[in-house]
């Protein structure tokens, strides 16, 4: 993948466009597979609660039996398998230990199934600063992507619709600091890929012109990137002159200041999706504004009112046999709503909107605003591991410190690599110092902020 990316970056724009269109053709094939899976699970959307409870319990029984027989960490709990049919999966589940990233990172091999076969290795950290590698079997990975696509279908997507996408796609090389066209267009899938890394007043003006020409039915992206783009567009002569059906967001919570400027500039309904790189939980927002758990990928404790909520939320996979995460604390506090019904008619369990900590942007001297998700890319792109936690602090306009909670050997291994990667994300406008530390401060809620910008008031 590194070689392919390097070839892409040195290719002229016409070749990059060709690559994007080839990728689009492949996405159309994947989309057909997603939609086949969605047709298979469609009955769960309006299944009565008793049948939902039974369906999830069957999944829990299967995953617990598999884990105690095949996963070293769960071998000491093998005797619990005999109780699954007599006491029920929910009661047995409550006797298994709660785990989180820190527990798993101490001995990751102990959480891998011995017979896992071919799987996808996904690196996730969100904006927590704690890296985590999860092995996902191929069907679970495909299902996870399909469930994310379902949110778009719920929003009324039709095959002729154009979608503009503003997420972490590095479609314009960072070696091009000021591209005239910070996007690529995939004709087969009618997709506009916008660069979230190149947002500044000039590129926002160019993007605004492209949107008016292409008139997409949907704009999807990270809330931080959408908020940055819309704040720049607000200062231009940008005007909505077409019917934008929805703004779709995911990967981060939507904060009030972001929602305000997005609604003001784009004037469309906003729908969210909550999910995880671990492919263990997802929830899509329906037309009534409620978040419905997918229910087929994982079980959230509290979703039926059988087990109580715990904080942070504990989730158990129902599908991933390669690395079965059981009672895994995903890091967010998720409020369940087991006794409520939704006017949209779907019976899938509901949760409250997930609110996590607010992250700052990095602001460069030229006026660029680099979102937290774009900064995370510097870690993921370099496949940096063995770091317990990280934090990025902007002390002034031209200086950023990156704190790494890691042992001395790991710190020395990644220091120069991470410094170069960060400087590239900041387009060499900011000096970067990578510093080892044994302590990163946490909030009263027990979380650390990934980005702290001291240029902003209150920091």
CATH topology of the largest domain: Rossmann fold
Order of strands, main sheet, comes to: 4-5-3-6-7-8-9-10-15-14
DSSP summary: helix tally: 12
* pLDDT averaged residue by residue: 89
Sheet having the most strands: 10 strands, mixed
The radius of gyration is 22 Å
Low-confidence stretches: 442-447
Which labels suit this protein?
Rossmann fold; 3 domains; four-stranded mixed sheet; 459 residues; globular; GMP Synthetase, Chain A, domain 3; ten-stranded mixed sheet; alpha/beta
Write up this protein.
It is a single chain. By secondary structure, the chain is of the alpha/beta class. The protein has 3 domains: 2-40 and 147-275, Rossmann fold, CATH 3.40.50; 45-140 and 290-351, no CATH class; 362-453, GMP Synthetase, Chain A, domain 3, CATH 3.30.300. It is 34% helix and 19% strand. It contains 12 helices and 21 strands. A 10-stranded mixed β-sheet has the order 4-5-3-6-7-8-9-10-15-14. The longest helix has 29 residues, at 13-41.
